[in-house]
Structures are given as C-alpha cells and as structure tokens.
C-alpha cells in the first residue's frame, strides 16, 4: 500500500476532546486560540498546565495538539450534522455543517497537516524560525479591522502608521520577546501578547 493510502496514527488526547465538547458553546460567537487555551488551563480541565507559550517550540506543540483536536472534533460534528468549526488562530467559530459525502469533500491542506502527527514529532527548535516566517504568516488573520492592526503595532512599540519591512518587524519582535521573556523576569502574558501581535502584523505582509 502506498504511503498516501496508509492510515495515520491518531494520538489525539481524549481528555482534550472531551473538554472541547463541553466548551462547545464558546464557539458560537467565536473565540481566539489564546482565549481557548486559557479556558482549558482552568479547572476542571487543567490542560496545558505549565506550558511556556512564550517559548517558540512549546508554543508550536501546544498549538498543534489543540488544532489537531479541533480538526478531529470538527470532522466528527460535521458528519453528525452538528455543525463544523472554522478554525483560525484569532477566531475559532462554529458554523453550519456542510453536507457530508464520504470521499467527495475537497482537500483541506491545513486539516491534513494537523491530523498528521509526523508534523508534530518531526518539528524541532531549528524548524520554528522558518515556521514563524512562513507557516504562521499564512495562518495569520488577513483583512483585519484597522483597530486590530493599530493595537498590534502599539503592542510591538511601533509607529501606528509608518512603513514597516518584514525584517524590521522580526527584529522588533525578537527584541521585545527577549526583554519580556519570563525566564528573564518578564511577564508570560506580555510575551504572549507580543507573539500574537507579531502574527497579526505578519499577515499584513502577505
């Protein structure tokens, strides 16, 4: 059998699936990935406890595990006619289910990526730099309201309307992340805000 025809191993955390099912109502109005992780860290779930989201590899692994579960759950809900999830880092929202016909639905590259655990195990710290430049940018929200872009610029301590090259953006991001890294006495919340603002502004350069 070809690699394409082989079933991929499924390591999706059943506890995480249960938690997301219990939290289904939060997807009606939409919720950001960051907000969802914060809810999952609270009782009774206590998931992703101790994960250092300001550390790039830890952030990627947390993100991958969550999105793997979201795509798995979305597919199950879709097949059951319960709706499906529109999944983006800045907004995860439940929408009406499309008609399910086995083997007929279109190819979803992101879904395929997150359901393949090789992409989790094969990604190391050296790969994250490229992911921040490429993969995260394609996932970042596009056509955002001007207020969101302005807020992201303020978070990164940039002029609100000045021209900005990708190289300048990355340099400022690295500078602030280093200053506010929790290991150097900074705030985890501030480091997370910096990372999210960077992803927002990356999307404006695509």
From TrEMBL:
Q: Which SMART domains match?
A: DnaJ
Pfam families (alphabetical): DnaJ, DNAJ_related
Q: Which residues form the J domain?
A: 151-206
Q: Which Gene3D superfamilies match?
A: DnaJ domain
- Top-level taxon in the UniProt lineage: Bacteria
Q: Write the record's keywords in alphabetical order, separated by commas.
A: Chaperone
Q: What is this protein called?
A: DNA-J related domain-containing protein
């Amino acid at each position: 059998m070809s690699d394409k025809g082989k079933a991929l191993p499924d390591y999706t955390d059943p506890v995480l699936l249960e938690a997301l099912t219990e939290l289904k109502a939060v997807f009606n109005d939409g919720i950001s990935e960051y907000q969802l992780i914060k809810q999952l860290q609270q009782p009774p779930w206590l998931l992703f406890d101790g994960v250092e989201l300001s550390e790039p590899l830890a952030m990627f692994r947390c993100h991958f595990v969550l999105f793997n579960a979201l795509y798995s759950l979305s597919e199950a809900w879709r097949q059951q006619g319960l709706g499906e999830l529109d999944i983006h880092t800045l907004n995860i929202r439940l929408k009406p289910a499309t008609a399910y016909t086995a083997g007929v639905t279109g190819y979803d590259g992101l879904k395929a990526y997150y359901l393949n655990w090789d992409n989790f195990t094969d990604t190391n710290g050296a790969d994250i730099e490229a992911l921040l430049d490429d993969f995260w940018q394609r996932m970042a929200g596009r056509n955002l309201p001007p207020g969101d872009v302005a807020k992201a610029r303020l978070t990164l301590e940039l002029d609100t309307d000045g021209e900005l090259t990708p190289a300048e953006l990355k340099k400022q991001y690295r500078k602030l992340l280093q200053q506010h890294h929790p290991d150097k006495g900074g705030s985890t919340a501030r480091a997370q805000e910096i990372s999210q603002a960077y992803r927002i502004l990356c999307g404006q350069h695509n």
